[in-house]
């Protein structure tokens, strides 16, 4: 009994995506979009129903990631605020809290 063989030529492809900002960092929404782009890849040749569903899921994922990023930012600011207060820098801590 002969086992059939399957030959597949795999051509590696690399995509470089560069995004920049001017005089600011990236917003949680911008980072969430980049995150979703890395997690979900949608083929243009996919079945239209599946492609539309995947795009809708990707948009939902962006919103969820952005929400939790904002939560993490608030939490980190609380940590920095408390560290500055503990170090005797109440005025600086208050400035950080207002951001």
What does this structure look like?
This protein has one domain (28-98). 61% of the residues lie in helices and 0% in strands. The chain has helices at residues 28-39, 48-86, 90-98. Helix 1 packs across helix 2 and helix 2 (48-86) runs antiparallel to helix 3 (90-98). It is elongated, with a radius of gyration of 23 Å.
Provide the descriptors you would attach to this structure in a database record.
single chain, 99 residues, mainly alpha
DSSP helical segment count: 3
Number of domains: 1
Large-scale geometry = elongated
Mean pLDDT: 91
Radius of gyration: 23 Å
Structural class: mainly alpha
How is this fold's topology laid out?
Blueprint (H helix, E strand, L loop, with lengths): L27 H12 L8 H39 L3 H9 L1
Helix pairs in contact: 1-2, 2-3
């Amino acid at each position: 009994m002969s086992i059939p063989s399957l030959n597949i030529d795999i051509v590696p492809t690399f995509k470089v995506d560069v995004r920049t900002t001017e005089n600011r960092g990236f917003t949680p929404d911008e980072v969430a979009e980049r995150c979703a782009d890395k997690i979900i890849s949608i083929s243009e040749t996919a079945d239209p129903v599946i492609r539309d569903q995947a795009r809708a899921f990707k948009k939902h994922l962006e919103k969820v990631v952005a929400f939790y990023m904002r939560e993490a930012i608030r939490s980190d600011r609380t940590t920095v605020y408390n560290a500055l207060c503990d170090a005797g820098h109440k005025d600086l801590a208050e400035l950080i809290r207002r951001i």
